Structure formats: structure tokens, C-alpha cells
Amino acid sequence: MMSSADAAPDRPRKVRSMARRALANRLFLLTCLCVTSLSVVVLAVLLITILMKGWHFLDWGFITNSPSRNPEESGIWAALWGSLSILVVCAASALPLGVGTAVFMEEFKPRRRWQLWVYNVIQLNVRNLAGVPSIVYGIIGLTVFTNMFGLFGTESRYDDFSRVRLADGSSHVGLIWDESETEMTFTDMYGVHYFPLGGDSPQRVVDIDDAFVSTWTATLSDGREVTGRLSSVDPEWDENDEIVGATVDLRTEDGEDLVFDAALVQNVKRRDRFQIGDEDWYFVIRFPFGPSVLTGGLTLMLVILPIVVISAQEAIRAVPSSLREGALAIGCSKWQMVQKMVLPNAIPGIMTGAILAMSRAIGEAAPILVIGGAAFVTFTPNNLMSNFAAMPLQIYNWTGRPQEEFQMVAATGIIVLLALLLLFNSTAVFIRQKFSTLH
């Protein structure tokens, strides 16, 4: 048994040990405070610098104007609309696929040994894919969506022509040479045509849209068959300035120009770009997709899909197991249990993760740059196949200009992008709080 005399020398050591631990604790807290303060100060300096640099151009005109070579007239409307367009496609594809995958992996786990092995491999890969650099997804999008493995040929192989539909139901693909208030001069492989723009003639024009053609094959009256890309159809005039014929310029794959009289053409075949829907329909689809809104949205879907799956899995796991057991106890099927109990209670976490993933997608520049997104576009997309500009690419374009004014315009674009990201994050917090109070 230890006496009081033996215990007395240990007290100073214990006091010194407690003092050292208290000092170490204070030093650790001070270090954490300094590191946190340094991070906040750096962020604050960065934001203040951007605000001071971009405040000059920040007005409603900057939001509603399109990009211009004049910095005073430049705006972000086309890029803003392009970013929102690809974001809608991204959300419409990533959310159902991601949430469905999470539900299957959490609520319908396989029981067989080999199926469980496949499940574990998929689960591991989903988590690994969340850390893959976004430019890798851009390369995948370029191969799969933009070029579609070359199955339909690359987009650069297709030339843009006009398709004219007439009242008699026929259609002509070629080039509009001239157009007046009453008549259109139209050229194709067969020569020159004059189509009325009004009246009751069965030859009158009722519709005009775009046609994409890679190669033309013409059978001539002398038995020859020529194939190539149509360079031009040039009318021929007489001494009275009246068109009496036309010559066709066809470029072969070897780079040779074949020029022949359109009157020799007996039959024409085209290799058109495969298209579903009319040109004036928003959901028109052409193959390959090319650098379009649809390609941008699907590429960003690849970027955020692992994030959506992981966040949805975590939200589903957070649902108490007692709710599942109670639903099954009253006779619900597995799907009824998921539909009525699991998903409604997991919605706050799912929506929060999805919105945060969307906020990451809207700020991505590398994958959009790889798939061929335009850095200078003055128009808004009018269908899924339209070219587009995204806000990060537009800001990148402005920062590359040598004029100091465009550096200020780029700072203004950053302010708008940060405001949009803040709106997304605030929406995520609001949805979580709203559903938390309901449940």
C-alpha cells in the first residue's frame, strides 16, 4: 500500500504533465485558427479583387447582351443560356440514372456469390470514378457522343445545305442562289430552278430548313458516275444576263475537282446525315451529335453521375431500418416499401447532393472545351443540336484577350458565375431544411 509520503513526489509531475497537455491543446487550437483564418483571408482577398475589377461592367445590359468585340457592349446572355441548356440535359439524364442506380444497389442487393462480387466491383468503381479528372470524361464524350466512334462519320464531313419543300410535296436539296420578294433562285445538281414564294402554284415554296450531306453521287448521261463533296453550283449567263445553265463543282476524296455541266446529270444520290425530327423542333436529333447542347449535357452527366449515385446511396442509408421493417410487416412489397417509405424520407439528401453536383457541372470548362464547345457564340441554342457557349468557356475567352477592358469583363463574368453557384448552394440548403421540418 502506497503511503502519502510516496504519493507526494508524483503530484508535481502530474501537474507538469497536465500543464504540458493544456499548452499543447492551446497551440493546436491556435494553429487551427491561423490556418482557417489564412484560408478565409485568401478567399476574401480573391473575391474582393474580382468584385473591384468586375464591378464596372456589372449591370443588366451585361446579362442581356451577347459577346461582342467591343468590351463595352459585351454580355454573357448567350453563354448563360447555353450553360443552363446543357445543365437541363445533364439533370434530366443524371438524376434518374443516378438515383435509380443508388436504389438498386442499396435496396435490391444481390444474394448470389458471383452477383455479390459484381456488385462490390461496381461499388468500388463508382467511388473511384468520382475522383477521375473531368478532362477524361471530356475525351469520353468526344469519342462516344461527338463522333459516336465514327459510325456515322465525323461531323466535319457533312456540309450544310438548304432543303426546300414545295406545295406539290417534292423537296430539293441544294443552295439558295438568290431570293426576292416573289421568287427564289435555287441551284442543285440538276441546275437552276425558280420557285415562287407565294400564290397558288404547286411549285411554290412552303418550307425551308437545313440539310446535312457528306457525299453526292451523280450519274451522268455519258455513263460516268462521279462521287464527292459538292463545292458549288455556278449559274451560266448569256449576253443578255439571263441564266442559261449551270456548272457543278464536285471535289473527290482524292482532292480532285470535277467540273461538269448540270445538264448531263441523270440521277443524284446523297449521303445525308441521319436525323430524327424537323429542324424547327427543339428535340431534333442528328447522328453523330457533334459539339451540340445534347453532347455537352451528356458529357457533364458522366462527370456528376458518380457524385449523384454516392450522395443518393448515403441518403438512402440514412433512412431508419424500422420504416422498412414496418412497411414489410403490413404486407408491402419491396417496391412499395421503396416507393412509399424510403424515397420520400431520402429526398432531402438526394436533392441536396444532386443540386451540389449540378453546381459542380455548371462550372466545368475542361470537358466542354474537349468536346468542341464554342468560346465565342452570339446566339442562344434553339434546339438540342445547336452549337453553344458555356460560361466558363466564355470567361476563358475573355481572359485570353490582350485588352485590359476584357480582363474586367472576365471578372464580371466570374461574378455572375459565382452568384449562380451561390444560388444553387442556397437552394440545396433550403430544400434540406424544408424537408427536414416536414419529416
What does this entry look like structurally?
β6 and β7 (243-251) form a beta hairpin. The strands form 2 sheets. Strands 1, 2, 3, 4, 5, 6, 7, 8 and 9 form a 9-stranded antiparallel beta sheet that branches. A two-stranded antiparallel ribbon has the order 10-11. It contains 12 helices and 11 strands. It is elongated. With 439 residues, the protein is α+β, with helices and mostly antiparallel strands. It folds into 2 domains: 60-149 and 289-438, MetI-like (MetI-like fold, Orthogonal Bundle), CATH 1.10.3720.10; 159-272, no CATH class. The chain has helices at residues 4-7, 10-54, 60-64, 77-107, 113-129, 134-146, 293-317, 321-329, 334-362, 366-371, 391-399, 404-438; strands at residues 159-166, 171-179, 183-188, 191-196, 205-220, 225-237, 243-251, 257-261, 265-272, 274-276, 285-287. α2 packs across α12 (404-438), α4 (77-107) packs parallel to α7 (293-317) and α4 packs across α11.
Q: Could you name the key traits of this structure?
A:
20% strand, 439 residues, MetI-like fold, alpha+beta, 2 domains, 12 helices
- What is the mean predicted local confidence, pLDDT? 88
SSE pattern: HHHHHHEEEEEEEEEEEHHHHHH
So, the CATH homologous superfamily of the largest domain? Answer: MetI-like
Annotation, overall tally of beta strands: 11
State the distance separating the first and last CA atoms.
60 Å
* Weakly predicted, low-confidence segments: none
Global morphology: elongated
Give the helix/strand class. Answer: alpha+beta
Largest sheet entry: 9 strands, antiparallel
Question: Could you name the CATH class of the largest domain?
Answer: Mainly Alpha
Number of domains: 2
Question: What is the helical fraction, as a range of percent?
Answer: 40-55%
For the CA atoms, what is the radius of gyration? Answer: 32 Å
